[in-house]
TrEMBL record, chains A, B:
GO terms for molecular function: phosphate:acyl-[acyl carrier protein] acyltransferase activity. It comes from Roseinatronobacter thiooxidans. Catalyzes the reversible formation of acyl-phosphate (acyl-PO(4)) from acyl-[acyl-carrier-protein] (acyl-ACP). This enzyme utilizes acyl-ACP as fatty acyl donor, but not acyl-CoA. This is Phosphate acyltransferase. It is found in: Cytoplasm.
């Protein structure tokens, strides 16, 4: 008992997913079975959740239920939810996080509403212009995952926002995948320096400059076909491009999967061949399983929020919970906040330096670079 | 002899591809073997091309060679090529098109340089703000292809450019795939009307308004996962987003292909299974073969230019040649020019109408809508 670490509590919006609360609770049970350090607060209809939880003895001692009668629907506009959403399970899940009853929150609900309520309840981190959503992407690299951000928090990003995405994305990747110095790339239409939009060229300069303080390596421009590359860990882009890229990748994978399935069921010999090849095809399916990639992390808020895909089943939800747990346990939220503040300080010092106050500049910058770990 | 249709001559930049002129000439031969109505002017090193052409009797009577000593390299900047590129095979190929010695041009060379030299030699169509590059995308639909534009001519597009892309893309699709009324979608981060950037909402309004004159159906917003959809034929977007989406799709397909190959060669049982499943896997490979999708069409110039992928082999090059042939034969270039002019007229009439000249407005608009076919 003495050596047991404190449990990490995840606040879970149990309603709002396509498969309903039963799938969410099953996802919690899958996680609990593998992880003795986890606890849950489930938000939603109490009677429904009590019945669902009762099916999994592993949840008995580690689960609280917060009754909330309302559910945010997929079609609800963020503005509606912000005005009238107080009774919803989403609102309740984020309030529990804000009040430190939990260390991270997970929801399958509508992305726009979840971001709006997260901003309202948690507030942005000091100095953050805009929060971002980071997704996971299958990678040829060691961890098996790259991350890309922003994939839809905002449809535009200027150079300063792109710099913050680089800092937040590196902090996320470092803590989620235990990578000392993540490699950051900036998404562009070519890797040559002269290519792309003006704000992207400027962002490249800022991101290169902040690499030391941000504890990442900047690998320069990357292209769409580099998203699964083993030469980059964090891909930075604006939320419009990132959202299109994410959905294009999903759509392409689905098209290939469907075509493969069609061909393997086209006639009797093909069906036999599929049976014969079930082992390698099963391994392919497992490696490309989108459920492994489930979990969009909201970065730049006072609290860790993980958005699970609306269509996620129990396995997918369990992956999102694992991500929330890993991030909460790592304490990355505090360290990311420190690092963002350091870069802001360094930028300010540099501007002061340009205004001919070199003495202050030199010493303060030294402090900033040394003080972080 | 009396009933034979006039041949369509394709002006081919035979240098500059990754596999050299031998692959380009082989691609021409593949096309000529299937198509009795085609002829070629090949541009490049005369001695090399003569030797290559001599290997294919089918090319003997239908091929001219234009000697040009220089080659545009993949790393050459557009500005360099514009200044010093007169001696190159690319320049020569576009000059032959401009001078009406050929009805379309094909090149495997560097995209940026090809667009720059195309603009210089052919000039933009009257009223076109910016040319666009349209790519092919595998589709679940009947033709097997969708088209997306712009995929990299320009990194930005305002609402007027997006409208022109819709008009040009619809004209292209109609003529390449014999589709009476192509369905046009506008790429966005969601299909709800309130989503996306301001210029995209405005573009949606303009594209909807011009549907009748442009002879397309506007299906509204589409998302990244709709790119292979059977519910849309032409996907309109800016060149930055389009380029990232195109390369993301290619990269995802390659990742899945590589993973499948790894699993099918992982051990002896898997290798046997691969052998056993070679028929359905071969059909999958054929349906997803990127060489079928080869050929980026430059739209908005006084002449049809098809950009083949630099890494295309003879099969890929032959697909690009077929596309150039189909478009040249259809005479779509002239009809597209007419349609762009009609929409510009209609917009102008409407603006005049807003300035209180309703009489002129009504009649002229009627003319425009009736006069086209």
């Amino acid at each position: 008992m003495q050596t047991e670490r404190a449990k990490v509590t995840i606040s879970v919006d149990a309603m709002g997913g396509d498969h309903g609360p039963a799938a969410v609770v099953e996802g919690c049970a899958l996680s609990a079975a593998k992880n003795g350090e986890i606890a849950f607060i489930l938000h939603g209809d109490e009677a429904v959740l009590k019945a669902a939880v009762a099916r999994y003895p592993v949840l008995a001692d580690i689960t609280q239920i917060h009754h909330s009668p309302g559910v945010v629907q997929m079609g609800d506009k963020p503005s509606q939810v912000m005005r009238r959403g107080r009774e919803t399970s989403m609102w309740s899940a984020l309030t529990a996080l804000r009040d430190h009853h939990a260390q991270a929150a997970v929801s399958c609900g509508n992305t726009g509403a979840l971001m709006a309520v997260s901003m309202l309840r948690l507030r942005k981190l000091d100095g953050v212009h805009r929060p971002a959503i980071a997704c996971l992407w299958p990678s040829r690299g060691k961890s098996g995952f790259n991350t890309m951000l922003d994939v839809g928090a905002d449809v535009r990003a200027d150079e300063d926002s792109l710099l913050q995405y680089a800092l937040m994305g590196a902090a996320y990747y470092r803590n989620a995948f235990d990578a000392e110095r993540p490699r950051v790339g900036l998404l562009n239409v070519g890797t040559e320096e002269h290519k792309g939009r003006a704000e992207i060229k400027e962002a490249a300069r800022l991101i290169a400059e902040a690499a030391e303080i941000g504890r990442y390596e900047f690998v320069g421009f990357v292209e769409g076909n580099d998203l699964p590359s083993e030469h980059v860990d964090v891909i930075v882009t604006d939320g419009f491009t990132g959202n299109v890229a994410l959905k294009t990748g999903e759509g392409t994978a689905r098209l290939i999967g469907d075509t493969l399935r069609e061909e393997l069921t086209a006639n009797l010999p093909s069906k036999l061949a599929a049976l014969f090849a079930s082992a390698p095809l099963g391994r392919l399916r497992k490696r490309m399983d989108p459920r492994r990639m489930n979990g969009g992390v909201f970065l730049g808020l006072n609290g860790t929020v993980v958005k699970s895909h609306g269509s996620a089943d129990a396995t997918g939800i369990s992956a999102a919970i694992k991500l929330a747990f890993t991030l909460a346990r790592s304490g990355f939220q505090d360290r990311m906040a420190e690092r963002l503040a350091s870069v802001a300080d360094a930028q300010q010092e540099k501007m002061l330096g340009k205004d001919d106050t070199p003495a202050q500049d030199g010493s303060a910058e030294g402090d900033n670079q040394m003080g972080q770990s």
